[in-house]
Amino acid sequence: MFGIRPPVTLPLPRRPLDTGGQVRRWYENELGWPTVPANPEGGPETTATPVRLRTGLRFDVLEVPAEAGRAALRHLAPGSPVAVQGDRMRLLVAAGSAEELPGVLEWLEWGGLALDLAVTGEGGLMDAPAPCEAGRAGERPLPPVRAEVLQGAATWLRPPEPGREVEASLPTLSALGGGGGAPDLVRVVHTAATHCHRLRLTRACAQPLAFS
Q1: Overall pTM > 0.85
Q2: 64, 116 Cβ separation under 8 angstroms
């Protein structure tokens, strides 16, 4: 005769981690940066980044190919935040730079050329990289550009540091001439534009010639 086994109590299903909420709180509470959910309808997350950052309030974003952005890093301050996503690099610049960029490019005589360079300012959004773990601040090696990374999530190459005034480290037009401690936006743009143009020429030369 077999005894009656006690009923097996199954654990309740775990609730999904509120990844978006954790990321949002880190940016809003630690840095004071406004955010919006990647899916404003409140449905399931369908992107690699659950949160986006509002641009034009605390900073604008200069986006260039990673190869061109790498050359511009030398003009940044140690605390200037830089993100990468796939083969693109995003350099955080002073708020208002988006309106000034066309004039800067014209002054540098880059205005008439098609450059793989974009800037996002007021009313725009940027995918929020995952917050960095404590004790891992500082520049990280640039991840290699691989096919499987091209659609990946944004990551910090130079993460912002909570508790520090990030705006003071952002490239700005007011730093022209070396005044103050902020990086010079003109130097950053000129270097990025120069390397964007070189990449464009390199890619054009690599394409096979078409004969009629």
Answers
A1: no
A2: yes
C-alpha separations of 51 from 61, 75, 129, 144, 162 in Å: 16, 29, 8, 24, 18
CA angle 30, 24, 89 (to 5 degrees): 85
Give the length of the chain: 212
Residue 79 token pair: 């605390």
Percentage of the residues of the chain whose pLDDT score is greater than 70: 71
Which band of pLDDT confidence, cut at 50, 70 and 90, is reported for residue 123?
A: very high
**By C-alpha distance, which of 63, 70, 60 is closest to 100?**
60
Q: What are 110's two structure tokens?
A: 């880059």
Q: Average of pLDDT values for 70-92?
A: 94
> What one-character-per-residue DSSP string does the chain give?
-PPPPPPPPPPPPPPPP-HHHHHHHIIIIII---EEESSTT-----SS-SEEEEPSSS-EEEEEEHHHHHHHGGGS-TT--EEEETTEEEEEE-TTHHHHHHHHHHHTT-TTS--S-EEE-TT-EEEPPPPPPTT--S--PPPP--GGGTTS--EEEE---TTS-GGGGS-BGGGTTS-SSSPBHHHHHHHHHHHHHHHHHHHHHHSPPP--
